[in-house]
Structures are given as C-alpha cells and as structure tokens.
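On to my pick:
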Amino acid sequence: MNLRTPILILVVLNALDSFLTIVWIKAEVAPETNLLMASLLGIGILPFLLFKNAMGIFTAAVLFYGSNYRLARYGLNLAIFAYGLAMLAHLFTGLAASGLLS
C-alpha cells in the first residue's frame, strides 16, 4: 500500500503545528504544555524547531519503511487524527485570541 501522500500530510501537519505553536507563544496567547518542548523553547526557537521536525521526519520514515505492516498504517491514521485535533486546538486558540470566540 502506498502511504506517501498520508506521510507527506503528517510531515506538513507536524511543521504547521510547530509554526503555530511558536506564533501563539510569541504572541503570548498560549504556553507550550509539553514539558520537553517547553524546555527546548527555553533554550531557543531553533532547538525547538529542529527537534520537533526531526521527530516528525523520523516518525514518517519509520512509517514509510514499515508501510507493509498493518500496525504502521494504523499508527499513521492515528497520528493524522491526533494532528487533526491539534489543528482544531490551534484554530480555537486563534479564534479565542482574536476575540471571535468568547
């Protein structure tokens, strides 16, 4: 089964998540709730971005090379679902920050 498109979606969602996280933190709208990521942000934006995107790319590579296993396909679907929820959280954060959601 070809998982290139869903894996690409996963990588893009990961990058978008890291970008939006930095936007909300810099705008002082929301904190980073993941303690590991918060500590990396304490060091700087670059370590945060490098680590977060490296994790996403590593995960995508594992899923790609294991794509013939059912567990990898389930894991990919679960990861995309989780990032979908994260994107909803970013959307509601943006709406609340702009005053459109009270």
Remarks:
- The chain has four helices and no strands.
- Helices lie at 4-26, 35-43, 45-65, 70-97.
- Residues 4-97 form one domain.
- The CA atoms of residues 70 and 93 lie 35 Å apart.
